[in-house]
Amino acid sequence: MGRQIKLKQIDFAYIAGFLDGDGSIMFQIKKRKDTLRGKRLMFTICFYQDTRHEKPLFWIKNRLGIGYISRRNDGITELRVNGHKQVQKILQSLYPYLRFKKEQVRYLFRAINILNKRKIDKLTKKEKKEIVNALIAARKQTYQSGKKNPKKLKADLKVIMAL
């Protein structure tokens, strides 16, 4: 994480509970003009709160020592942490205290552990398939306010295999 802060177990428990209730763990494929492939994989932890009650997000950011806060136009404030190594480190600390997102995190750990071995363009086809399978399983664990477009999901998975 950014600067190291010694957290107490109760801090990890509070942050994990906040993530379970008002947070999300995302895996995205982002367009990038500065890479040869034109795309990159991105892992994100996001905490959400009504902007009128955003103070806990600043506390969490301070405790973790990483992330950025933004206010959306719909009255919601977000705290985001990006990067598979940072996400992995935070989730490892929160994992014992998670209740509802534990299964999803287990699948994300599988994908992240493979990505930590070497750059994605150096992974074998088998390793890429393992990442895809882990991410499909993680998405199945995710609460979604609307249905995910299955064509978009298939397209995302093809992108991973092509990277």
Automatic annotation (TrEMBL):
Family annotation (Pfam families): LAGLIDADG_1
Domain Homing endonuclease LAGLIDADG: residue ranges: 15-108
Gene3D superfamilies: Homing endonucleases
InterPro entries membership: Homing_endonucl, LAGLIDADG_dom, LAGLIDADG_Endonuclease
GO molecular function annotation: endonuclease activity
Protein name: Homing endonuclease LAGLIDADG domain-containing protein
Native source species: Candidatus Nealsonbacteria bacterium CG23_combo_of_CG06-09_8_20_14_all_39_25
